[in-house]
Amino acid sequence: MRYRRTIADAEELTEINVSPLIDMVFILLIFFIVTTVFVEETGTEVDKPQAMTASQLEKNSILLALTAKGEVVYGGKEIGVGGVRPVVSRLCQTEPMPVIIQVDKHASAGLLIRVIDEAKLGKARNVSLAAEPGTS
Question: pTM value?
């Protein structure tokens, strides 16, 4: 009789409790979702000029677009030149961030200067222009 009881006790101990494993998977899932960096797009297509000195810029930046029609776009919405300073100052409240402007190669240079001025007045850390990498 004692031999049978030992085998039955051993079979009961071999069960694996998977509930902590499921909890751990959910915690890892939440961790990866929270730490994922989402790529921000301007919401409009811009025909950028090519530049031999083009380089990768920071991921954590404010992305604006200046179209050939003279529209200033942020987050898929046309904000105009007057909307640049409020957007930049709101996003730079906690810490100054760089502003990257995607300029269409047919856009007005005067309008570009006004957008750069508004971004700097909104306390942007620096203002850069986006370009396509050129070929030699």
Answer: 0.58
